[in-house]
Design brief:
Layout: E1 17-21, H1 25-30, E2 48-51, E3 57-59, E4 63-66, E5 73-83, E6 99-109, H2 120-123, E7 129-131, E8 147-152, E9 155-161, H3 169-176, E10 187-189, E11 198-199, E12 204-209, E13 213-221, H4 238-243
Parallel strand pairs: 1-10, 3-7, 4-13
Antiparallel strand pairs: 1-2, 5-6, 5-10, 5-11, 6-7, 8-9, 8-12, 12-13
């Protein structure tokens, strides 16, 4: 099933999905003095982005494999901004004019301690970005007042709102398009709330929000063990995780 299936014409997703880290003030507060450690020695000044590549994209209802080296997934509920027209250096006051609508997403992440530049192994597991086919029109809801609920095995375990984010949707779109262009059909996830619950193989999960529908999934164990000589996952310390990633400049600490 393509991500575009179920969306009203002419809306089609491009297959490009970006997420933003630490857009919940509580998530940043939980890091404490770690945000002042080398190499950045300060909290981020611009949005810190990551990519969910095509291998991660999946519809509601799928079974997501939990590899043997993954103890659990964080079940991150997110609001997605669907870009409706080319967006470059967008003014915050005009942000809504660049949207085709909103989608619900579930961002599955391997728990880790690398908060600035997490290894792609933690963010890009197969099937780890579930996207709803329910598109809400730009004027159908307030993107800065959406309640997201996460349930594990049928029990609601986490509830959070998009209210009070470090960057409300309009400012986020303005800040992101200050240094990169977004194209029609791109999807920008506005951030995961602090305290996202975890689930492991054999468990089910769901995420829902008023006006955005519901996403369901289940986690299944990898069917065969890895080869005896397979390299284990590196320790998820900030230093080890940072060393596993490319040394490209971080947009969150540009001059």
């Amino acid at each position: 099933m393509a991500l575009a299936d179920g969306l009203p014409a002419p809306i089609r997703l491009s297959g490009v999905i970006y997420g933003v880290l630490m857009n919940d003030p509580a998530a940043l507060e939980r890091l404490g003095d770690a945000v002042n450690a080398a190499p950045y020695k300060a909290p981020p000044r611009a949005p810190v982005l990551y990519v969910k590549p095509r291998n991660t994209h999946a519809p509601s209802g799928v079974a997501v494999t939990v590899d043997h080296d993954v103890p659990a997934f964080e079940i991150g509920a997110a609001l997605g901004l669907v870009i409706g027209r080319t967006a470059c250096r967008v003014a915050a006051g005009a942000a809504a004019d660049y949207l085709a609508g909103y989608l619900l997403a579930v961002d599955l992440t391997v728990p880790h301690a690398a908060f600035y530049r997490p290894s792609i192994r933690f963010k890009a597991r197969d099937g780890s970005c579930l996207i709803s086919a329910t598109l809400a029109a730009p004027d159908a809801l307030d993107p800065d007042a959406v309640t997201l609920e996460v349930a594990i095995d049928g029990e609601t375990v986490h509830r959070a709102s998009t209210a009070g984010r470090t960057r409300p949707f309009a400012q986020l779109l303005a800040d992101v398009t200050e240094f990169m262009t977004l194209r029609p059909g791109d999807l920008l996830l506005t951030g995961i709330a602090a305290g996202a619950p975890q689930a492991g193989a054999g468990q089910t999960f769901s995420v829902e929000a008023p006006g955005l529908g519901r996403i369901e999934g289940r986690l299944v164990a990898e069917s065969s063990p890895p080869a005896a000589d397979a390299a284990p996952m590196a320790a998820t310390t900030p230093g080890a995780a940072a060393a596993a990633t490319a040394p490209a400049p971080d947009p969150g600490h540009g001059s």
